[in-house]
Amino acid sequence: MSADATTAAGAPLVSLRNVSKRFANGTLALQGMTLDIGEHDFISFLGPSGCGKSTALRLIAGLTRLSSGDMHWSSAATHKNGKTDRDLGFVFQEPTLMPWAKVFDNVWLPLKLAGTSRDAAAPVVKQALEMVGLSRFADVYPRELSGGMKMRVSIARALVTHPRLLLMDEPFAALDEMTRIKLNNDLLAIWREHRFSVVFVTHSVYESVYLSNRIVVMAARPGRVIDEIRIDEPYPRGEDFRTSTRYNAHCTAVSQSLHGALHGVDIDH
Questions:
Q1: Is residue 265 domain-resident?
Q2: 266 pLDDT above the threshold of 60
Q3: I need a surface site. Which of 77, 90, 154, 205 has the fewest CB within 10 A?
């Protein structure tokens, strides 16, 4: 088995322990979530709408506060002054690009906000665009790009700070199947080369099996984890894996778990 198919040894990058989130209107969006995110993990959150997948992602990102439980980042992500550098990138379902700014300036934005000048950021921005195959498009506006290209810009912007953790909230859901497959392959190639961790939200069983080394299956009302499935298959993955009996077997197992999630049945392996 490839080392890429297993969670790296040692302390996890991020640990969630019995984390819950209740909104001001009383809705319990997430209940009792416990999860370790390892170095170079590729984890997919899979479940029905309203099961707390996006809420969990936002809690990890610090975009919303947990109501109870604990979240801990590894000591490697903590500065000497005790402050935590969460060192993450976030890719939303929509590219959320600035339409008045060229591709280069959209990717530069996180560095600009951190105080890095345009000239100083240029080599890093160019590298990020190379990673997603958009080197020739630095000087065009988002309106000139296809949906898949816009998402590539969004991914480049998230990666320009070289995060240790990339959070992705259904980034390919609105794309056609061929573009989605291509971006799946490109994302895996970048992930393998640069060795960051990924938490990926999806509604697709097939996408989750193809991408992930671990799949977290969640049930709605209230949102909670009911199953965790390990996909012990080597990387790189390609068309041979997509058409294999092993892939079909994994998809069947995950579909059965998701069926349990839809009916509120906790899985006990």
A1: yes
A2: no
A3: 77
Domain that holds residue 63: 1-87+166-176+195-269
CA separation for the pair 119, 104 (Å, rounded)? 11
Percent with pLDDT over 70 in the chain: 90
Are 144 and 89 in contact by the 8 Å Cβ rule? The answer is no
What does the pLDDT read at residue 83? 39
- Which CATH number covers residue 211? 3.40.50.300
Q: At residue 265, does pLDDT exceed 60?
A: no
Q: Give the CA diameter of the chain.
A: 55
DSSP SS3 for 40: coil
With respect to residue 157, please indicate whether it lies within any of the assigned structural domains.
no
Residue 199 dihedral angles phi and psi, to the nearest 5°? -120, 120
Residue 16's φ and ψ, nearest 5 degrees, are -110, 135
What's the start-to-end Cα distance of the chain, in Å? 22
Q: Considering the domain boundaries, does residue 65 fall inside one?
A: yes
Q: Would you say residue 34 lies in a domain?
A: yes
How many domains does one find in the chain? 1
Tens of pLDDT, residues 190-215: 999 999 999 999 999 999 999 999 99
- Tell me if 44 sits within 8 A of 210, measured CB to CB: no
- Amino acid 265 reads V
